[in-house]
Design goal:
149 residues; Rossmann fold; 5 strands
Amino acid sequence: MGPTLHSKDSAVVYIVDDEESVRKGFSLLLRSAGMAHRAFSSAEQFLAELDPQKQGCVLLDITMPRLTGLDLQKELKKLGLNLPVIAISARDDADTSRLARELGARFFFRKPVDDQALIDAIRWVLESDRTSRAKAGPQENNSDSKDTL
């Protein structure tokens, strides 16, 4: 394990997939890319253990028993948690992809996923989120101040 896996300042990639082999595969891939990550076997487990203060993104399987990936996206919105989502599914139909994107997924990948494309997507999503949070931060902290350029 490298130091990136436990860094308190780094964003975390949350893997939510009911298939153990997929969770292990993604964990190995993210570890090799030096990315902090946590794996969850269900949407319910993810919601129960999520630290809402931690920045990161969700690598989310769409087709899971009980609470599906689409259901989890709805729940995240309802809770006001703005974690970027990368949706993954063995199903590659237009409706599933459309619904995932309508609910806010930034990317949609069909299993099996190309490793480099996934790493690139995760890096883009994390950087994009970090940039938008940095831009929003000063505005929220200085909402009463006037710009005097």
